[in-house]
Amino acid sequence: MPNWWDKPAPVVIPEGYAEFAEQFRILQDVMTAAAPDADQTRTASQLVAELIDVLAQSATDEWSQLSGRLPVPGRGQTLVPAFHIETETETESRGTVRFGRQFLGGNGAVHGGAIPLFFDDAFGRFANTHDRTLARTANLHVDYRNVTPIDTDLAVIVRFDREEGRKRYLTGEIWNGECLCVEASGLFVVLKPGAA
Ligand SMILES: CCCCCCCCCCCCCCCC(=O)SCCNC(=O)CCNC(=O)[C@H](O)C(C)(C)COP(=O)(O)OP(=O)(O)OC[C@H]1O[C@@H](n2cnc3c(N)ncnc32)[C@H](O)[C@@H]1OP(=O)(O)O
């Protein structure tokens, strides 16, 4: 069985798949925002049952799935809020994120659990790119400075602060205009040879 030390095989992305993954995000947003009546619930439930049926026909292993491996913002991993990178150097990545309705915690604020999810993914990607060897999240710290609003384009900064032996330290921020919403930091530890 392959592991993280093997180079993943190039993924062939069927035409329309990236758009389908984006539709799937929208589906999760509209599902969260909806209050269907009984007829609408029945219709929606039948359509989702059909969708499950179609997708289950191409079920495959982790190494062949398309989700998480697309060369698009969010990589087609529809659980994770997509980080739209605008500029990137070896040590700093800047871009935007927009938490859709599916990430609502309450009263217009993003769910507190969605924010570490976002940073684990954004840090994890950055800790593992630019020809760096593989590292996993050892810890993640999040300070919620101000409410992070849903359905708003927010500025993101991710920094590769420093590397000490096998330890990589990353920090990040989410801004709503001039308002600092979140500060985060993470430790990523380079895997020992043979560790998966
Ligand atoms: C994942 C690969 C993707 C690749 C594709 C890339 C592109 C695609 C993008 C994907 C984006 C998604 C990326 C998600 C990234 C995850 O979410 S990874 C999943 C979550 N993390 C885990 O499951 C990790 C579970 N934990 C472990 O496996 C092990 O504890 C670790 C973290 C590998 C460390 O174990 P170890 O190698 O035995 O480390 P050890 O020798 O004990 O310690 C080494 C040093 O680190 C320190 N340390 C270790 N743990 C800690 C800690 N928790 N706190 C403080 N210090 C610590 C030690 O004190 C030690 O320090 P020094 O003595 O050297 O100063």
Automatic annotation (TrEMBL):
Protein source organism: Gordonia pseudamarae
Catalytic activity: dodecanoyl-CoA + H2O = dodecanoate + CoA + H(+); (9Z)-octadecenoyl-CoA + H2O = (9Z)-octadecenoate + CoA + H(+); hexadecanoyl-CoA + H2O = hexadecanoate + CoA + H(+); decanoyl-CoA + H2O = decanoate + CoA + H(+)
Keywords: Apoptosis, Cell membrane, Cell projection, Cytoplasm, Fatty acid metabolism, Hydrolase, Lipid metabolism, Membrane, Transit peptide
Protein family per UniProt: Belongs to the THEM4/THEM5 thioesterase family.
Cited InterPro entries: HotDog_dom_sf (IPR029069), THEM4/THEM5_acyl-CoA_thioest (IPR052365), Thioestr_dom (IPR006683)
Name of this chain's protein: Acyl-coenzyme A thioesterase THEM4
SUPFAM superfamilies: Thioesterase/thiol ester dehydrase-isomerase
Principal subcellular localization: membrane
Gene3D superfamilies membership: Hotdog Thioesterase
Entry EC number(s): 3.1.2.2
Cell compartments where the protein resides: Cell projection, Ruffle membrane; Cytoplasm; Membrane
Domain of life: Bacteria
Residue ranges constituting the Thioesterase domain according to the UniProt record: 107-179
Keyword Hydrolase: yes
Topology in membrane: Peripheral membrane protein
